[in-house]
Amino acid sequence: MSEVVLEVHNLRKSYGDKVVLADVDLQVRSGDVVCLIGSSGSGKSTLLRCLNLLEDVDDGVITFQEREVSDPRVDRREVRSRMGMVFQAYNLFPHLNVLDNITLAPRKVHGMSKRDAETRARALLERVGLADKASTHPDRLSGGQQQRVALARALATDPALLLLDEITAALDPELVGEVLAIVGDLAAEGTTMVLATHEMSFARDVATQVCFLDEGCVLERGAPEEIFRNPAHDRTRQFLRRVLPSA
Known about the structure:
By secondary structure, the protein is α/β, with parallel strands linked by helices. Helices cover 36% and strands 25% of the residues. The strands form two sheets. The chain has a six-stranded mixed β-sheet, sandwiched between helices. A four-stranded antiparallel β-sheet has the order 2-1-4-5, covered by helices on one side.
């Protein structure tokens, strides 16, 4: 059995009186593709931000590579250096060209030489179909191209875990497929991922585990065929009927 990369136990997060995550449990093994589905506001993005230590948790334990990282004394920068995260809004540095965006973390955080970082960056740009855009600045790229650069940047440090937060939500419909194709290839290659998505057909095709979140709780989890063909909870069925008319 593959090693456990990430474990979450009884994770709780509130903003004032509003409970955003309530006793969330999650286990991610090497090579897993865990898709978080649910309505907007169900807690998917907050969960990813907690996993990446961008949000403080109120209670619970996050263990990453056999080390508790929810401890407030942990070096968050060091933990994040072993994760890659891609956001809905790309978050590329506008004053840097594509190559510099991708090589910044490998050089500054991981101490990679400029030559090695650029060699890896160019290979990743080739992989995402943007080999000719190395010297281009983000504002000269389409949304789909920017998101592919963001994926390349997240992969540049060879992360143990890749977190993807609704990475197609801001894209025009015709650009969604080009980004999902790359993520699908990463999944097929065994990249360990947790992603929040509204793309149900994609989740059904690539996920090893689907978690349905509702009002901050993981209401149901299981293999894609279980969740999409025979969900156990009425709330899951209601959600899937809304997003998949044939469900």
